[in-house]
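Q: Hi! First time doing this. I have a protein sequence and I read that you can turn it into a structure. Is that right? Here it is:
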Amino acid sequence: MQLHAEHFAHAITACGPDGITWAGQRITRSVLLRSWSREALPWGNAGFEALRADDFAQLAEGQPDVVLFGSGARLRFPAPVLLAPLLRAGLSPESMDTAAACRTWNVLASEGRRVAVALLLPTIAGTVPGKALK
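A: Yes, that's right. Below is the predicted 3D structure, encoded as structure tokens:
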């Protein structure tokens, strides 16, 4: 395994019930991270029950090698119809709880892999990223 130091700057250094810390920034709303563009985008902020196929289609943008879905405090699997855009793009998302998705992101991103992860996080007023965070 070859680790790439430049990717450690974009590691998730904290993950808990009140959000994550990524690239030195505290994020408390659900988020989409892309290792190759090093951006954080708002994602699925209405919660698990309100997820749509369009939310998952965002994960296919940029042609990632690996797609991860962090479903919150416990492992939940999205309905197959929601995953259809990913499957059509030849991607098979890995579902896990959000803490496991954070750990997996760190390993894959540190290897220089093109990984996209969608993390469901709690909603705390006033902390929504309004645009890509860098």
